[in-house]
Design goal:
heterodimer; A: alpha/beta; Amidase signature (AS) enzymes; 11-stranded mixed beta sheet; two-stranded antiparallel sheet; 13 strands; B: alpha+beta; Arc Repressor Mutant, subunit A; 3-stranded antiparallel beta sheet
């Protein structure tokens, strides 16, 4: 097996045992990036050759020097007989929404294109402290606002490694693509409405949104502060557990981080699923969206292959001893997107206030008459269309005259969504679930440019994931097959607060018990070494 | 002209004297620091940072609420007030909106006529301060040092009726803030800032007319003047058939003038919503009780007690409770002296306050401890030293730090009360003043004063005046 195909767990084990040098692993990762990634996203003009069209373009910035220095440090520690930590020598990519000292942190926006943070995000620091090697910053939708990575100001945007004509999903598209394309073993993403899970499903990798407050948000450039969760992206469940193990825990610099003790996620994987109650809900069998004319909610069943993957996973888990409980009512799931439109936009508009051209980042080059013109021009030139849309909507929805109709009302519905989960997981309730099994997305990846531009439709691709963000509960997506176009299908396991251990254990069981499935032997396009004509 | 009354409400911003800022670990005090030398990623609003609430700010805010007799809310919330300005690095201010730390309350003002005036408090909320901007050579400069300094915003009900009352409110609020130790309350340094809402109405009416808001009335004089000016302007306007509009005015202290900042129409919508980066502030009943218990006796209570317990006049009690360390000093001195408390008050008001002024010290900073003052008063009252010596002793003790008795002994300051030695000195004096003695004996008894003066001069003022007089009369009569 090539070094780049190794799991993070195996790399760390070999490095810690002295069987493998961290610098070797880093070199291999750098080579893989050179081989499959193509030109990095930038603000520059570009023209792609056919060959470049079939590259991944996950990275905005490869931090080669930093990576080499970090891996050398790991090797030196080993040489001195010290343990560099759980992630010794593991190559990791970081979504470019996390501040990392020594790199630029752009949020994939022109307005921060040259911003160098003077500090490092807590989650990233924990990865480094555990011996992880930061390979660079990967692309995303501008300020994480999107579900395809296409809205990045840094172009070319990332392609789906399984089929480069398709989007990788988003907003953590660079993260999931870099892991799927074996450029890194792990990636750090963020999930506000599904931004880890949707692209992970599209790219056939594992993506975990932890419980809100389980992983520190310090250093994550905020989108919607009450929903944002940093989380791991990996190729298998054990690696997600390993990465969460390193990052989870209270941060004195994040008041919303939880003081609850961190579970032993790796150990939990060793247990089976016998007796665990896993629910299926009819409310996850269709997408509900408003008719633009009448405002009525229309129902569209999800892609059949996705639904079949969920049911077949239920069978696998039932065979492993889990109890499958059907017809779990999650009636407020369908309001997840409308509520998200309100809550996330209001918070986003406020969070984007600080980008005003006064202190850092982009400032208009034109001569301005007064302060207001400086603000207007800087923000008009610095933000792309998606941040502008969200600012407009957020400002409108939180205005004194509308706040009670929209924002306050949305908060009430958000509480109802939370209640659905409390009801399902209540140990003394009717369902007493340990996890809910659902599709991650209603359909597999869509083609580049097919949805981009329709901000509303794009948002609806988060319908299966967003309720977890409203409720704060943890959820993980795992690969569960390929559709007839050869695109990955993801299934999602949702757990009760702080029960990452359980959803990881169930996922791991599914993964172990489907090792011989035919689809597991299929490799992504960019790894097959074929160039399409 | 009709009879108008002025209706005033004050909005004060009080800088809490915490060690660090409200949401980060930068020092709260940046006085005379270089611009932008006391900042960090959090208070300068870098991307990705999060606020962490300073519990000392909560405690001091709650202490003030208690001192104002406000209800301390067991659950209060932070909100974002969104607006753009270069001194506000995040583009929003973290403040409290609809669930503040304190609600209601009042401050009882002792007015100069001896009456008490109750000013009700609407609410108190915690918030972070913004930075400062200034324009220099056409360039706008920004200093973030003040960003994140903890403030309490305290709003009164429209209970004040004149510039003088508003000034009294600020004077007594400032006293209270220092007294309970939550703020330095130095108006020149911006620790206590004030905006005034002013409207007028016909006396006897109970409606509230349109008000104007005067910003930056940041001294006691400014409050008095600005409100006076604005009331005059409104009355003249209404009398001439005009209508008061809801303006925001700026007080220019240098020119003693009001200028229009903006009219109501252009007022911002701050789009308040809950700050998602902070948890609700919870104060348990126990914590609130602890805060209550830790508060000292308040100035108005102590003042009333001084009047009763020490039989002080209203005037004396007011002076001696003008500042906490002075009143503590007084009580300690009274206790050490253990005789008439009024005597100690006189010494402090007449002599000690002059000494404190000259030395630029507060009572607690004096080397002249309360017990030393008591000893000096005692020596004077007992006739061991004369009053002038007593007064000069105050300074000697303050400057040397030595005990009064020690100074009296070493410098021989005690009154000469030994009649033998005094008699022989007076005999010598009379022997050298034959003419005056003859004149006295011839009936010019007014010369007695001259003889006493001579004795005092020759003894350096230490002769016991009563004894001197007795001996003189005895010797002269012979």
């Amino acid at each position: 097996m090539s070094l780049t195909a190794l799991s993070a767990f195996d790399i760390a084990q070999k490095v810690r045992a002295g069987e493998l040098k961290a610098s070797q692993v880093t070199e291999a990762a750098l080579n893989q990036i050179r081989k499959v990634d193509g030109i990095s996203g930038s603000l520059n003009e570009y023209k792609l050759t056919d060959e470049e069209e079939q590259k991944v373009h996950a990275f905005i910035q490869v931090t080669e020097d930093m990576a080499m220095a970090q891996s050398k440090k790991v090797d030196e520690a080993i040489a001195k007989g010290k343990d560099p930590g759980l992630l010794a020598g593991v190559p990791i990519s970081i979504k470019d929404i996390f501040c990392v000292e020594g790199s630029t942190t752009s949020a994939a926006s022109k307005i921060l294109a040259n911003f160098k943070a003077p500090y490092t995000a807590t989650s990233v620091q924990k990865l480094i402290d555990a011996g992880g090697v930061i390979m660079g910053k990967v692309n995303l939708d501008e300020f994480t606002f999107g579900s395809s990575t296409e809205s990045s100001a840094f172009q070319p945007a990332t392609n789906n490694p399984w089929n480069t004509e398709y989007v990788p999903g988003g907003s953590s598209g660079g993260s999931t693509a870099s892991v799927a394309a074996e450029e890194t073993a792990l990636s750090l993403g963020t999930d506000t409405g599904g931004s880890i899970r949707q692209p992970a499903a599209f790219c056939g990798v594992v993506g975990l949104k932890p419980t809100y407050g389980r992983v520190s948000r310090l250093g994550l450039i905020a989108f919607s502060s009450s929903l944002d969760c940093p989380g791991p992206i990996s190729r298998d469940v054990r690696d997600a557990a390993l990465m969460l193990q390193v990052m989870a825990g209270q941060d004195p610099k994040d008041s919303t981080s939880s003081a609850r003790p961190v579970g032993n996620y790796l150990q939990s994987l060793e247990q089976d699923v016998k007796g665990l109650r896993i629910g299926l809900s009819p409310d996850y069998e269709a997408v509900y969206y408003p008719d633009l004319e009448s405002g009525e909610l229309l129902r569209e069943p999800i892609q059949k292959e996705v639904r079949d993957a969920v049911l077949s996973a239920a069978d696998v888990l039932a065979k492993a001893g889990a109890e499958i409980v059907e017809n779990i009512p999650m009636p407020n799931t369908r309001y997840g997107i409308p509520v998200y439109f309100v809550v996330s936009r209001v918070e986003a508009a406020s969070n984007l206030h600080r980008f005003d051209g006064v202190k850092y980042g982009y400032r208009t080059k034109t001569e301005v008459q007064d302060l207001n013109e400086l603000y207007r021009r800087t923000r008009a030139e610095g933000f792309g269309s998606e941040p502008k849309l969200r600012i407009l909507m957020g400002m409108y929805l939180s205005a004194a005259d509308y706040a009670s109709d929209y924002y306050q009302r949305a908060l009430k519905v958000r509480a109802m969504i939370r209640h659905d989960f409390e009801h399902a997981f209540d140990p003394d309730g009717s369902y007493r679930l340990d996890a809910l099994l659902t599709p991650t997305t209603a359909a597999t990846a869509f083609k580049r440019k097919s949805v981009f531009g329709d901000s509303l439709l794009m948002q609806y691709s988060d319908q299966m994931t967003v309720a977890c963000n409203h409720a704060g509960v943890p959820a993980v997506t795992i690969p569960a097959g390929l559709d007839e176009s050869g695109l990955p299908i993801g299934i999602q396991l949702i757990g009760n607060d702080y029960r990452e251990d359980l959803i990881l254990r169930i996922s791991h069981t599914y993964e172990q018990n489907t090792q011989n499935a035919a689809w597991r032997s299929v490799r992504p396009q960019v790894l097959r070494g074929e160039v399409k004509a | 002209m009709k009879d108008y009354e002025v209706i005033i409400g004050l909005e004060t911003h009080i800088q809490l004297n915490t060690e660090t800022k409200i949401f980060c670990s930068c020092k709260a005090d940046s006085w005379e620091a270089e611009p932008n030398s006391n900042i960090c990623p959090v208070c300068s609003g870098l991307p990705g940072v999060l606020p962490v609430l300073n519990s000392e700010a909560v405690r001091k805010g709650a202490a003030l609420a208690v001192a104002m007799h406000a209800r301390v809310n067991p659950l209060s919330m932070f909100d974002r007030k969104n607006y753009f300005y270069p001194d506000l690095p995040k583009g929003y201010q973290i403040t409290q909106f609809d669930q503040p730390i304190g609600t209601g309350g009042y401050l009882d003002l002792k007015m100069t006529d001896g009456q008490t005036k109750r000013v009700r408090i609407h609410k108190l909320h915690l918030e972070e301060d913004a930075g400062k901007t200034k324009i220099e050579h056409g360039t706008r400069l920004v200093d973030f040092n003040r960003c994140g300094v903890p403030l309490i915003e305290m709003v009164t009900e429209p209970d004040l009726r004149s510039g003088d009352e508003a000034a009294q409110y600020l004077i007594q609020l400032r006293q209270l803030l220092r007294w309970i130790g939550v703020s330095e309350a130095d108006m020149e340094r911006g620790h206590l800032r004030c905006d005034a809402n002013v409207s007028i109405r016909e006396r006897g009416s109970d409606i509230l007319n349109t008000k104007t808001e005067i910003k930056n009335v940041n001294s006691i004089d400014a409050v008095r003047q600005a409100i006076g000016e604005e009331a005059k302007r409104q009355i003249e306007l209404v009398e001439s058939g005009g209508v008061v509009q809801s303006y925001t005015l700026d007080w220019d202290a240098d020119r003693s003038k009001l200028t229009l900042m903006r009219s109501k129409e252009s007022e911002a919508d701050y789009r308040y919503f809950r700050e998602p980066d902070l948890l609700p502030v919870k104060l348990s009943e126990e914590e609130i009780e602890t805060i209550k218990a830790s508060l000292p006796e308040l100035p108005i209570e102590r003042r009333e007690r001084f009047e009763l317990e020490y039989q002080l006049s209203v005037y004396d009690a007011e002076i001696l409770t003008s500042e906490r360390s002075l009143s503590d000093y007084y009580e300690a001195a009274v206790k050490a002296y253990d005789k008439e408390a009024k005597v100690v008050a006189n010494w402090m008001i007449n002599d000690l306050s002059r000494l404190m002024n000259d030395q630029g010290k507060t009572a607690s900073e004096l080397a002249l401890k309360p017990v030393f003052l008591a000893q000096i008063i005692d020596m004077v009252e007992e006739g061991k030293i004369n009053a002038a010596t007593g007064k000069s002793l105050l300074r000697k003790v303050e400057e040397s730090g030595r005990e009064p008795q020690e100074i009296v002994d070493s410098e021989g300051l005690a009154v000469i009360a030994d009649s033998d030695s005094l008699r022989s000195q007076i005999e010598a004096l009379l022997a050298n003043s034959q003419d005056e003695v003859a004149n006295f004996r011839a009936g010019k008894e007014s010369l007695l004063g001259w003889f006493v003066g001579q004795v005092m001069r020759s003894t350096g003022g230490k002769a016991d005046p009563k004894l001197t007089r007795e001996i003189l009369l005895e010797l002269l009569k012979n």
